Amino acid sequence: MTDSAFLRLLFSVAIWCIAYAVVAVQMSIRLFNFNRSSLT
Question: How many whole angstroms separate alpha carbon 3 and alpha carbon 32?
């Protein structure tokens, strides 16, 4: 396994992790706003 292939794999994994984290944060913010609006 060459270094370039390993770096490419690591880069793709990092992109997937960042995308998953962004989606999770957006969903949690949406749920938080929905709960806050339903409480008032």
Answer: 43
